[in-house]
Amino acid sequence: MNLSLSAAGSGQPASLEWTLNYSATDFSSAGVEVGPAAAQASKSVSCQNQTGSLTCMLWGLSSGIVSDGVVATVSLNVSPSTSNTSSTVQILSPTAANPSAAAISASASGGTVIIVQPPGLNGFSCSPILISPPIVSTCTVDLTSAAGSGGATITLNSSPADVNIASTVTVPQGATSTTFSVTAKTVGTTTPVTLTASYSGVNETFGLTVNPPPAALSSVSVNPATIIGGQSGTGTVSLTAAAGSGGAVVSISSSNSDATVPASVAIPQGSTSATFSVTTGSVTTATSITLTASYAGIAQTAALMVNPVSSATYTGLDTTTQGTWTGKYGADGYLIANDATNPPAYATVSLTGDALTSWAASTLSAIALQDSSGSSFRIASCYHSTTSFNINVNLTDGNTHRIALYLLDWDSTTRSETISILDAASNTVLNTETFSSFHNGEYAVWNVQGNVIIQVTRTAGANAVVSGIFFDPISATSVPNVVGDSQAAATTAITVADLAVGTVTNQSSSTVASGDVISESPVAGTMVTAGSAVNLVVSTGPAGEASATYVGLDTTTQGTWTGKYGADGYLIADDATNPPAYATVSLTGDALYAWAASTSSAIALQDSSGSSFRIASCYYSTTSFNINVNLTDGNTHRIALYLLDWDSTTRSETISILDAASNTVLNTETFSSFHNGDYAVWNVQGNVIIQVTRTAGANAVVSGIFFK
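The chain above was modelled as a monomer; its predicted structure follows.
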């Protein structure tokens, strides 16, 4: 603050004296320095400080006068504790003297000092106040006034440290506020968090709530991951946490129409997973499909392999062609042991567990194979094993082809072997044949489709052997009409037509003589591939009366029925319907239910013969239901009912078998305590009604019906 002299008519002073009063509340101290006008006159200033007061004298050793202008500069130090924005300063008791030390009249006036307060914190807020990953909250800090030069740096922190927050934020120069972002860290439970902003010793706080992250898509899977076309699987979608209010709807898609899935699946509130059905169609080659599940911006995938249906029909044995195969076999391709490898383009062939041997690398013997198509050179050789070996054949074009294996017991007459053809995907046995006495060479011939494993197993002699593998197309032929012929005559006609006799089923008939053919399948005139099987139904004469004899209860086999039950046919609730040709089966009054569509429990039934997959299911009724079984061949057959109390131990039921024509009760048995699975077995003839009636527990149940 400058003190200025303005002399009036009484002349310029040579010395001055004054008292400056100021607010001790607003200012902590004051100081004075000589101003330019006094310095020019070689003057000095001396002051006496008191609280709120400063008494000063402007003097000098010379008698020179002080010109008009700034004679002194006063510095006032603002008190940090003041909140005032202005303060009054007074100049009192001014005196002046001329060079002769004579007093000069003097007056003075004070003024108002403007105090500029520094900015302080004036508010702190965030929105939204409820956050979870990856939600961002935007926060704002306000100052009481504009930030000065260089801006205002505000310190930030959180307690607890369950959010991501910068350590500082700067309000730009001239601004009164700024914003910054806060993101939630992952927490296990709802957590209150206090944010603190600090500036110039002042703190402002604001509270946020951090919630656990919402459920996200964790995975999608399918079981089984490899499946035969036409079969179904079960998909599962899983979340990282339980679904919230309203549940979670997960979108599902398939990369290929050969696998059908629902558009979405709902995971109920509070659950972490849900299942959905995967239905496959028929394929001609192994088809890789990707299933994709999507939820809340996250996608997960699962791989599904759909394999073609495999089949193998044995068409017979050729004992006459011997080693001269050109023109009859191998039109599409062939493999000759220790010599030629020329598979067709539609087939991949690999052998495992075998070794190679040549009995004669070059020979003229007619039982040795030509070493190539049309060749006059022959080789006696074999793939062999002292136990067994496998030939994996994958026919990738979806068509049925003829495969002939040349069997040669070159150096003995004692070899015999079993050849089984298995589905490569499921290991289900499609056909098994046994061969012996092939010293002179034989072609064992099958019609094959899909991916199969040909398993060759030694049963006698030095080892199991195959000398050549030949591939051919299958020509079409017409099914002859053999209805009304004797079974022997029908067999001859079918063989002459280059077809094979398939399943022969006996059935009673009041119109067709015993031993004659009632019907054939396919019907006469149908064009089929050479080597195809024709199934026959042969009359046993008029039917006898219905009968049922209870055999007993099997409590040990449980769900692993293959090899003991169902050799002729079977029905498995909510799964397979494969009754034998001699039986018609229908159920009334029942409903279907699957406790577990897929399970590894030993008490659940295998879902097909030899399968490793199991299902726990049932036909059921809260009162009773009927199974009508008509055995049409006139013979007595064993019928086994599988009883399973899967989800309790309280069920009991009565099973009565009635003559379907007269309703006469042929047998009645009562069953209970079948939680671990029991087979109830009868010997049955004719047309019967199996009546299943609940006596205790939730309902009456039957899980499977097996014929033998």
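The mean pLDDT is 91.
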